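Notes on consecutive records. When two proteins share a document, each keeps its own sequence and its own token line. Never mix them. Below: protein one.
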Amino acid sequence: MVSAIVLMHVERDRIKEVAETLAEVEGVSEVYSVAGRYDLVAIIRVRTNEELADLVTGQMLKVEGISDSETLISFRVYSRHDLEAAFSLGPPR
């Protein structure tokens, strides 16, 4: 599994529209409207680097209203949710 975070600058009057469009793209698990230097943050989870490249350059950056982006590829994911899921499988047999 390849996880990435995409930080985006978006035209102010298109933030909601862009966020809703991105949220419908397969591989985009969440889209956040944020305060600070960026307007939107998308969390991507795909199987391969090739899928990531196709998603970011082939689909996301063609969405009207995104003026700039920065993609952060994760090495490892640390999540309480992942740990809870692993331990909720039940006792070992």
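Protein two starts on the next line and is unrelated to protein one.
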Amino acid sequence: MRRGTVGALCRSFPSVALPVNPPFEPMLAKLTREMPALADLLFEPKWDGFRCVVFRDGDELDLQSRNQKPLLRYFPELIEPLLAQLPDQIVLDGELVIATPTGLDFDALQLRQHPAESRIRKLAVEIPASYVAFDLLALSGESLLEEPFRDRREGLERLLRDAQPPLFLTPATLSREQALQWFDAFERAGFDGIVAKPLASTYQPGVRAMLKVKHEHTCECVVAGYRVHKDGNGVGSLLLGLYDDDGVLHHVGVASGMAAPLRGQLLADVQPLRNGALDGHPWRDWADAMHEAAASGQRMPGGPSRWNATKDLSWEPLRIERVCEAEYEGLLSGRFRHNARFKCWRDDKRVAECTYAQLDAVAPAELLAMFG
């Protein structure tokens, strides 16, 4: 894509002549439950956005997602800033984010992946994205994949020392104590956790060579319905709800990812709750009232997926009688940021106790604080 030319917003990768070229498989991280205490680690905030590798070769520019799909057509507002601030030949690893006064907005980021070019251009103005770089993979025709991360980070800091928005260099620290402070302080701003990177490590495409520490919380939720697993056997997901201060039951997400034996057991557990489930069910009229509910702020299940029109989101209602304990990673706009995990039934709890008030109250944090 040529400098200053959005054109038709390319749907495939441009022709670049770099030592690291798209499609490219980024390095990954494996989950750990405790902040690692190993020596020679650099800690970074784990941004809640789209993983993105930037390729620039002269006037050619492209953005690639974690699953090796082109992203540039969805974020045309980044073309000029990246071409203006980056060297002629460079490959960066980083994250696309949308920052608001209250933190990162992953929902807004998902809206940016729209098929209509006119809509893309409109959203580029209304909810522009930023790029946060955290690794340097190639520079001036030379691959840096075999260089230790210590050297790659130093090079990245030199290049982006004076970077201007929407281009950022991710903050980093050698201090485990500082990382623990970040882990607690910036959760409400939309951060997933902390990534720990060995300073002596080379860049290993597709390998889980880093460590990530993610937020984990539990809460008791109303089980208001379920979806059958895609193979037709057992429960694929449980629809979870929490009451607000006015006694309205909101759909906050689903618990999924259960092993096959548990899926079968859960199906047996919920069968007695199907009889008469729609009598007085708070989500009974979701199909007809979906638009009205969204306008009033009530979150309800069962709508068509805006990402996959063929995906079956139909669900079976259950009587509002049982409570489960679910493990979740974080909240965004009153919903679980990612799918929760079923832990156990909590028959010692009343459904009325399943309220937002039980959730951890994390103090808000300003994104600017991350950059000192």
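For the record: The chain has a mean pLDDT of 85.
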